[in-house]
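STRUCTURE REQUEST FORM
Protein name: Putative membrane protein
Source organism: Saccharothrix violaceirubra
Requested output: structure tokens
Priority: standard
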Amino acid sequence: MEPTRPRTWSALALAGLLGTAGVTHFAKPKAYDAIVPRSLPGEPRTWTRLSGVAELALAVTVAAPRTRRLGGLLAAGFFAAIFPANVKMANDLRNAPPRTRALALGRLPLQAPLIVWALRVRHAAP
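Status: completed
Returned output:
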């Protein structure tokens, strides 16, 4: 196996994750509207759409070898920036059924590996 194949696969997998998340912001926006922190100005739907567009743009940037280094860095920043929304969701669901609450809480520690993954994609880029 050539040495670039695993690096390319990792970048394309990250691009797929970002692209899928971006599409769901438009296909099922109510779920995202509900986790937009109230401290942000404007309507939650605006932030949902903006974050969906950002994820789609990041997916393209990470997928393309010429922009992968920048895309990895921007994706890491994006994953850090959306952490407050995940905290808000976990807080809002603190009285939800146990399974729902566990899923919301489980998302919190996943941000760190996503950030590390994006940075590894950046460092492995040509």
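Reviewer notes: The chain has seven helices and no strands. The chain has a mean pLDDT of 91.
Form closed.
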